[in-house]
Amino acid sequence: MLRAIVVALCMLLSGGAFAAKLQALKAGDFAGAWLIRDKEATSLKLNLYILTGERDGVGVEGLAHYVEHLAWENMKKDNAEPRAGHSNAFTSSDLMGYWLSGEPEQAAELLSDLLKVHQPLTVEETFALEEREIIQREYDYRERENWRALAWRGLMRRLHADDPRQRDVGGSPEVISRYSLSEARQLHRQTHNPQNSVLVLQGNLSKNAANKLLRDALGRSQINKKALPRSESTDYRMAAATRDLSTKHYTGVTQPELLYTKLVRLPEALPISDLFAQTELLDRLLSSRLEGGLSVPLHYDNFFANDFSLDISVVDKQHVLMYVEATPDVGVSLQTLLQAVESELSKTAEAGLQNTVVEKIRQRAVEQFLSYDQVRTQSHILQSYLEMRETPVDNKKYLSYLKRSDTDSVVRLLQALAGEGRVVAELVELPEEVSQ
Amino acid sequence: MRVKLYSFVFALLLSGCASMPEGRQTLTSPEGQSVLFQYMPKAKDLTVIVDWPSDWAEKNEHNPAVAHLGAQLMVLSGTDSQSAAEVAEGYSQLDAEGYLLPKLQLVRGVLHVQEKNLRPAAQLTNEVLRQPLFDTRWITRVAADRRARMQESYETSATQAWQSLAYLTITDDQAREYSLMDDLALFSKVSQADMQRWHRETFGSKGLVVAVAGKVKAKAALSAVDQLLTDLPKSSAEKSSVLQTDFSPRLVLLHKPEVEKSTLLLVGGLPDQQLTGASDMLAAAILGQGAESRLNQSIRDTLRASYGFSAAVSAYSPEARFLYLSGEVDSKKIAQVQIAATEAYQKFVEEGPSEAEFRAAKINILNQLEKRNESSTSAAAVEMIEYAEKGWQIDGEDRALVEIEQLTVESLRAHVQSTWPSVDALITVAVSADAAALENACVIERATQAGDCR
Q: Which chain B positions have a beta carbon within 8 Å of A431's beta carbon?
C-alpha cells in the first residue's frame, strides 16, 4: 500500500504523462514566442523559426537556403571560445529555422547570439560568395548518387505544377552558382525580422524567467529596423486532377520501384488539428496489418509488393497528399503493382472501415504518443503547426484531437483519397530494361 | 505538530522516489540463466538482448548470406503456427519490436517492449526463435530485395571508400566476406535447407549472454527471459575467432571515372581498450564534430572544400577499434584536404585540446551520457554485455561517467598522445574520378584490389 502511494505521488510530482508544458510568452514584435518547459533539462535549447520557406516563392530557387547559410554566419564570433552545446539551422519548403543549445546560465548570451540572425548580413563578400561552393558540396552530399532524390524532385515539380511548393529547396548546381549576395541580402531583409519570426525556448525555466529573458534580450538586440513585413502565404493552388504516369530510368537503380503520389482536395476545409489527427489515424490504419490495411493484400496475402510504405501528409486545411513507395515482387511488373495499389485502396474505401479497427488504431496511436519523449514530441507538434502558419497546441490538446476523431471522419478522408485527385507517379525501371 | 508530521511523511515519500531500486546486477533466472540486469526508472520501455555465439562466419563451407538472410527471415516470414502478417501484427499490437543482428562472432537478438506487454512479447519471440518458417517464396523475395539494396549501396563512392578500407585492414578473407557481403551472387545461392541448418546450429540455449535493461521489475524480467528461451535446443555453436586486422599506414586511391563526387577517409587503429572508450569519443568530438570542431574550421571554414568533415571512433569488433576522419570533398581539392586534415590531426595529437574546448566537450558528453543512462535501454543492455565480456564488474557506478568526470585536459592530452596513432601511421583512402588526385597513391580500380596495396 505504502509503495502504491509512493509511486502515485512520484508520478504526480514528475508531472505525469505531460511533463513538457507549452506556454505562450510575451512576444513583443515577434509573431510568437513559446516556452516548452522541461523540468528535467540540464541544458537550454533556443529555436528561432522564420515563417518563410521555399514555398513562399521569393527569389530564385534555393535562395532561402543560401540566406540561411549566410544568416548563420552572423552568429559566429571571431576567436570565440568554444561553448558547450550544439547548434544548427535548416530550410524547408515551409520554414527556415535556427537553434542553439547550451548551459542554462548562458541563456542571455545564447539568445543574444541567436537573434543575430536578424541583423543585416555581416558576412564578408568573398566568404559569402564562397559559401555557394559549400552549398554545392551540400548538394553533392544530399543529392548526388541518390536517384530517389532526383526522382522525388521531379515528381514534386509535376505534382505541385501550379503552386510554389514545386520549388526545389536545395536548388540545382547551375542555379546555386548564380546566387547573388544582393538578392540574398534582399530576401534576408524581407524575411528575417521579428514580425516574421517565432521564438521557442526549451528547458527548465519558469514562464516568468523566460519572459524576463526575452524582455532583456529583445530590448538590447539590434533588430533589423529596415525590415519589410513578410509576404502573406497564399492558399495552395492545386493543379488539375489528372493521371500523370511516366516510366523512368535513373543511374544507380538496382530494382524496379514505384513512386506514387496522389493529391486530393477535400470537400471542405477542416480545422488543422482535426485534419492532423485524421491523417495520422488513416496513415496508421492503411499501413497496418489490420482489416483495411493495404500491406496485407499487397505484401502478405499476395506477393505484389516486395517492399511497401505509405505516408499521408497535410498540405493545407483542404488538401491532403498520399505517397507510396513500393518495389514489385519477383515476377511482378510495375504496371501490375500500380494497379494493385490503386485497386486495393478503392476496395478499402468502398468497404469502409470497421469501428473496432479504427478504435484499435486510435488506442495504439494514443499509447505510442504517451510513450514518446514528450519534450521532443511537443517540439515536433509546434513545428508542424508553424509549418501550417497556425497557432501551436500543447501535447494534451493534440492528443484530445486524436481521441475525438471518429470513424466517420476517417472514412470520409479515405474516400476522398480514393476519389478524384491528381496522381503523379513514376515507374522506375532497371537500366537493363532500357536496352531490351 | 500536525504540520510537522505531514512534513515528515512527505519527506519520507519524497525520499522513496529517489531510492527506488536502480543499478546494475547479475541475476539468475528460475531456469538458471544468468542475466545482466539494470533497472531504469525513468525509461519508458525495456530492452532484452540475447547473444547467441556463432562460428558461421569462419567456416569455409558456409554461405555467409545464409546468416544475413536467415536473421531477417526469422522475424519476417512467419512461424509454423502464425502467418507472416500475424507475427508482424502481433508485434504491432504489443507496441514491440524484435529483430536479429548477425555479427562476426554471434547473432544478437533484440526485443524492445514496455513491461506491461513483456510476457506476450516474450512468448511471441520464443515462437519466432523456435519455429521460424523459412518459406521458399519469402527466401526468394527477401534475397532479391537484399541483393538489390546492397548493390545500390556498393555503387556509392562513400561505401566504396569503406569497402576499400575493409580490404586493406581485415586480413581474414572469410571474416571480411561475412562482414561486407559484397559478393552479391551469394544471396542467390541460399536454400531453405541452408537456412534450417543455420537456425538449428545457432539458436540453442547454451553459452548465451543475456541482458535486460529498462523500466521492469527484476522478477518479471527473469521470468520473461525464461519464457523467451523456452524449449530451445540444449546446444550451442562455438564462437568465431578474434578478428585479424592490419591498420598499418597506406595511401590508396580508388579511381572510379564515373563517380560524381569525391570521398576522403583517414583511418588509424586504436589499441584494445582498457577504458570505456568515452575519452576517445570526447577527443574525437573536439577534433571533428560540430561547427566549431578543428576539422570543420580547417576544411569547411578555411579551405572551403567540404560541407562537413568529421571525426569519430568505430570498430569492426571489440578488439578492432579505429579512429576515422572522413567527408565528401571538392574533387579539385582532395590533396589540399588531405594535407589540411592531417595537419589538424597532428596539431591536435601533439598539443591536445585547449581548456575551453575540453570544458565544452566534457559538458556535452556528460549531458549525453546522463541522458542515455536515464532513458536508452538498448545502450544500457549493450554496455553491460561489453563490460561483462571484458571481465569488468557491471555493478557500481557508471564507468563511462566516472571516466569522463575524472578526466582533465592534461589527462586527455596524455591519453591522445599515448593511444592515438601518429599522423604518419594513418591510412588514407580516397575515391575520385581523377586518378592523379593524390600523389604517390596506390591507384586501384576496384575496392577488392585494395589488399594488394601493401
A: none
Cα distances (Å, whole numbers) of residue A333 to A211, A339, B128, B161: 60, 10, 32, 35
- Report residue A233 CA to chain centroid gap: 17
The Cα A362–Cα A367 span in angstroms is 9
Query: Which of these, A232, A97, A233, A238, lies nearest to A166 by C-alpha position?
Result: A238
Instruction: For residue A188, give every residue at least 6 positions away whose Cβ sits within 8 Å of its Cβ, in sequence order, or none.
Output: A67, A70, A71, A120, A121
The amino acid sitting at A314 is V
Asked if A304 and A332 touch (Cβ cutoff 8 Å), the reply is yes
Q: What is the DSSP letter of B245?
A: B
Q: Give residue B272's Cα distance to chain centre.
A: 16
Chain A within 8 Å of B182 (Cβ-Cβ)?
no
Summarised one tens digit per residue, pLDDT across range A77-122 is 766 788 899 999 999 999 999 999 999 999 999 999 999 999 999 8
- Asked if residue A246 lies in contact with residue A426, where contact means CB atoms within 8 angstroms, the answer is yes
Reference B35, options B43, B24, B45; nearest CA is B24
Residue A67, amino acid: V
3-state secondary structure B87-138: HHHHHHHCCCEEEEEECCCEEEEEEEECHHHHHHHHHHHHHHHHCECCCHHH
Q: How many residues does chain A have?
A: 436
Chain B residues touching residue A306 (CB < 8 angstroms): 141, 144-145
Nearest to B17 among A13, A138, A367 (CB): A13
Amino acid at site A349: A
3-state secondary structure of A358: helix
Enumerate the β-bridge partners of residue B309.
Answer: B327
- In a 3-state reduction of DSSP, which class is residue A106? helix
Query: Which of B14, B140, B364 lies nearest to residue A330, judging by beta carbons?
Result: B140
CB A422 within 8 A of CB A265: no
| Of A216-220, A393-397, B36-40, B48-52, the least confident | A216-220
Its pTM stands at: 0.91
Beta-carbon-side half-sphere exposure of residue A419 (alpha carbons within 13 Å):
12
